[in-house]
Fold this sequence. Notes:
This protein is α+β, with helices and mostly antiparallel strands. It contains 8 helices and 19 strands. The protein is 37% helix and 26% strand. Helix 2 (145-170) crosses helix 3, helix 4 (219-237) crosses helix 5 (239-255) and helix 5 runs antiparallel to helix 6 (259-292).
Amino acid sequence: MALIDVIKYNGNNTDFLWKFPSEDLRLGSQLIVGNGQSAFFVKNGQVLDEFSEGRYTLKTGNIPFLNKLINIPFGGNSPFSAEIWYVNKISKLDNKWGTQKPINLEDPIYGVVVPVRAFGQYGFKIASPDKFLKTIIGTIQQFNANDITNYFTGRVLSLISTLISRKIVLEKVSLLQISVFLEELSISTKNGLQEEFNNYGIEILNFYYNSINIPEDDTSLIKLKEAKELSMKVNTVGKDIYQMDRSFDVMDKAAGNEGNAGSLLSAGVGLGAGLGLGNTLGNSFSQAGGNMNTNPSPPPIPGKVSYHFVINDEQSQPYQLSEIPNLIASGHITKETIAWKTGLENWTPCIELDDLKKLFDQTPPPIPKKS
């Protein structure tokens, strides 16, 4: 085999790692390292030296590591054997990721188990070529962006599943509202992955969640939406009025039955519904009469009062007073956030509500984010 006179990169622009195809070199050959590249001499699996961009003449006088190679006589065009690896320090920003299988999670607000999918993309570059080469080098001849993405897929998806689950379970975020926190999850995932990628000399440049969703045709999504709608009705009209409305529905359906059997069933159902309705109406009128009494009923227990907030232009689920300090501490609500509870006519800034105003005085401000 002919000895090599010129050694230069001949891979494509997606290869992060590329091995020069020949190991038969000679003193006096020209080593060319392009812009944004590093070249390494490797002998018996050991990285001997690194060269940055430029043009080099291989001589023992100006490249000391050549003296370490065995069986190299000094002077002339002496042949020697060594591997030459190129590492490209380019950035790759459009690496897409997605959950291969849905993550089954229980909605903490409505108690429905649904399959959750997540999709996005991230970017990276080789920040430490020598560390990257030493940890990846083996029998491969080249290593491109897809190889890196596939290599770390398991770690990426594992961390994504953990962070989504933690957000939903620990902070009681409904799956119907998880999209509000995409930016926060993106930052957390990027920081978590960087610790892992540092071991390979790779820097994560960005990480994004494009969406976290539930398949539209999944029956659990329908149940989840129905549960939310029911909760909104109860919160809007009150539990007693909602039960009364349901009683009227039952009576209407029972009255519509036909035939003798239907008549008997109607009578039974109608009687039971009527009794229930009577109790509900009695309770409702009793409460109305109590409101007219000169001695009003005492206010509800503070811990049982629930507030809704407008967060990122969307109405939140109800939060009890005991849960609100955590929302203040995490920065999800501020003094200017508007809130509503049963009995209020309009949405009102938190600072204008006495029981919420006190909470801001007791809660430390959010920890500033690192720049």
